[in-house]
Structures are given as structure tokens and as C-alpha cells.
């Protein structure tokens, strides 16, 4: 006797109405459209939930840390063009790409002895006092500032605040207090190598102190960077170079104070003497080369060349002549110089042309203003600057 077994669905089981069981492909397409619409509604709901969650998170952050703790980048002053302080050298301002040293940042100037580090820093102070009417401070850790030389460079010594601290901790604490006040525009610290930790001062001569200065600088920079940005104050660290022992490949030069400063610095300037400038047998200055070793605001590795005269600082008249000819604001025919649009010569030879600009400060100021407008204004593109330089070079060759 043949027995047949039928498997019936148990209680709770449902027979899915597939295309095979129902025998119609239309029903399967309808189910697919319904599931797609449902998933779209779920994703839209999840998107609105994400936006609401983000708004709630921002409100919670602002209630804990204050309004402005989290902002959109385009609605903040961070997106605006950075303010700068002129270095006192047109060539260096051009090499920096933004027209000077940035405000609210850390800047390092390093180089060999007698290369012009302090002179360049004092020139920045003079420019900040003249053009911005800014308040400046000079922390003299080396105890070697010369008031007469600073005055000769154009620094208003009566308005310059000077501190000569006894230890590195004291110097950095003074700098931090001045920056946090929000009333200082520029602080110069001369120099990192002279920041002696208090433990080293209290110890015996010859005691081995491991990386005290590097740890001191690392801690100080962690505190200073936030204060600098909020107060829009710039700090310039002057630094010396040392020689590594046993280096075969690569440069043996290294700056003192550890590696923290080179990370925190937005701009690093390597300044060197190139050749001596002589009048007869007497050396009256040096041709100086400054390389932008690091630049977070523009292209790095650009080089600026200018003359630095003893007792006078940066030779601005020489820069005006060179850049004026290069960008078509001055004409040079042989040894004769003349203003653009005026065929009448102003002087014969570079020395007499410099004297002419010294005796006519209005012409020099107008020439510098035109150069800055041409080179540093946003309307002047890089192509226009290069075109002006090419046209000036072609006129010289003719």
C-alpha cells in the first residue's frame, strides 16, 4: 500500500508570495519598487537625524566651552587674508609671498654669528612701530642689546619694552604674559641658545643636564601658540646654529633648543653673509642672503638678496633701484637711471642714484608704494608680476 506524506506549513510560518509560487513576475517587480522606496525614506530620515545630532553636539560643545568653540571655516576670520608686518626689506617681503612676516604666528630667524639676525629683527620692530603704530617688546636673553644701534636702524627706543631675564623660564614667562595681555604686536626673543634653564643655573659647572632646554622650549611653545593666535601677536625667535659631530652625508648644521621650534614655526628664515661691500679698502657692509627655509603661508625655499650696511641696517635705496628697474618703474640706460615715463636722467651710477633717493624721500616713498601695490596687492596676479619683470629685462637688453 502506497502512502503519501504532505508537509503543511506549521503555525507561525508564512508562504512567501514569490514569482515561482504565484506564477507572476509582475508581483516581484512591485515588491522591488516598494522596498526601494522604503530604503530611500529610511536614508532620508537618517540624514535628517544626522543633521539634528550634529546641531545638538555643537550646542553641547558651546555650552561647555563657550560660543565659537566649533565654527565653519568660511565664516571665521581664519579664512581671511593674513595680516603681516614688513621685514624692512622689499626683497624679503616678496620672497615671503605675503608681504612680510605673518601676525599671530611663530617666526624663527637663524644663522651663523654676525650674519644679521638681530639687525633683521630690529628692522621688523622699526616697521611695526612706524607703519602699524604697534607695541613691541625685546627680550634680551643674551644681555647684549645696543640702544644706539637700534636707534640708528629706526627703532623708537622710548616706545620699545626691553627685558633682560636671568633664566630661560623667566624669559618665556615674560613673553607669555605680554602675549596674553593682547596689547603687544611683536615680541623678539634673542636668543634661544641663551635661554638657560633654572636647574642649570643652580647646578655646578660641568653638571650634565639632559635636554633641559629642549623640554623647556617644547613646553613653552605649546602654551604660546594659542595665545599668539588669539592676540594676533607675532613672536620672533632668534637662534644660533651648531655643528653635529660625525655627519658624513647631509648638512651637519643644526639649530639649538631642540626640534620643537622648527615644527611650531610658520616661517623659518636662514640668514647668511655672502660677500663684503667695500669702499676702497674699508668694509662698509655685507651682501646678505636670506632663504625662506619654511613657509606655511606661501611657497618656501625662495631667496632674497639685499645689502646690509654697518651702522645703517638694510640698504633700502639699493633695493628700490634694483626692483624698480626689474619691474619697469625705473629705466637704466648704461650707467644712467631715470624714472619711467620721464626721459630725464636722475643720476649716473648706482651710488649717486642711491643718494638721489635719500635726498628725495617723497620720490622714494612713491616708488616703494607702487612696488608694494604691484607685488603684494591681491589684484596683481603672479602672471602680471612676471610679465612686468620680463618687459623690464627686454628694455635693459635693448
TrEMBL record:
GO terms for biological process: DNA recombination; DNA repair. SMART domains: AAA. It holds the Pfam family RecA_N. Keywords: ATP-binding, DNA damage, DNA recombination, DNA-binding, Nucleotide-binding. Residues 378-398 are annotated as: Disordered. InterPro entries: AAA+_ATPase, DNA_recomb/repair_RecA, P-loop_NTPase, RecA-like_C, RecA-like_N, RecA_ATP-bd, RecA_C_sf, RecA_monomer-monomer_interface. Residues 81-241, 246-319 form the RecA family profile domain. CDD domains: RecA. GO terms for molecular function: ATP binding; ATP-dependent DNA damage sensor activity; single-stranded DNA binding. HAMAP family: RecA. Belongs to the RecA family. This is Protein RecA.
